[in-house]
Amino acid sequence: MSRTPLAVLILGAIAAVAVAGIVELAFLGNPLAGVVLLVLAVLALLLALFVAIREPDEEPGESVQTHSGRMEWKAPSQRDDIR
Predict the structure, then answer these.
(1) Which spans are transmembrane here (predicted)?
(2) Which end of the chain has the least Cβ crowding within 10 Å, N or C?
């Protein structure tokens, strides 16, 4: 599973937990449960941010020098073609 959909799922869970915490605090009168839910939402947000920050910008690969001396980025499956 790619990290982007995972981050989206985590952010959806954060929203659900945060809404549940706010409803608990505002309408049901048990502030301790609401605070616990909000703390869990903040922890989930930190996890989602960690996942999003660590997401690579591009596929794994490397810069390789071609026969003409130019540097090009190649995916692992293409490396043998240019050396």
Answers:
(1) 30-53
(2) N
pLDDT for 29 equals 72
Buried b / exposed e over 31-66, threshold 16 CB at 10 Å, is: eeebeebbebbeebbebbeebeeeeeeeeeeeeeee
* CA–CA distance, 51 with 7 (Å, rounded to integer): 6
**CA neighbor of 41 nearest in space, from 8, 4, 15, 6:** 15
Is the predicted pLDDT of residue 18 greater than 70, yes or no?
yes
Query: In Å, what is the CA distance from 15 to each residue of 3, 23, 50, 57, 68?
Result: 18, 12, 17, 26, 53
Distance from C-alpha of 74 to C-alpha of 72, rounded to nearest angstrom: 6
Task: Return d(Cα 63, Cα 70) in angstroms, integer.
Answer: 10
Take residue 26 and report the two structure tokens written for it. 């505002």
